[in-house]
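Why do we care about 3D structure at all? Because function follows from shape, and shape follows, mostly, from sequence. That is the central idea of this module. The next example makes it concrete: a single protein chain, its amino acid sequence, and then its structure expressed as tokens.
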Amino acid sequence: MNKYEMAVVINGRLDEDAKNAVLDKVKALIERFEGTIKNVDEWGKKRYAYEIQKSKEGYYNFIKFEAEPGAPAEIEHRMRIMDGVVRYLIVTDDLPENTQLSKEEAPAEDASSDEVPVEEAPEVPESKEEASEEASEEAPAEESAAGE
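And the structure:
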């Protein structure tokens, strides 16, 4: 059995009873394909980043479950036509429970050990006149070195 997490956004226009009915259908769908629900995290009603189906907010729910490898495809196939579900996404849950990485906890790279010297780029002349002056200054030096 693999671990999965499903994010479900339910239409924000539904009342509390209708929202709970849709969430119960989603849970029943997971159990229908021999999945076991471990945790349901309800975030409540949140505003969308952009308008979806002429609606500006929805109920966000996150469900952690275990199921066989073929179950997510079957669940998604049936979620696609479920009334009240605006968006859904199933991802594998590889992290152990109660483990979340933040920027402070992430391993810091030691910049001093892997430093590579960077060569400075030569200065680029701003105008054609400066470029021709630099070329004429370098040319005699190269000729004298070649003549010796």
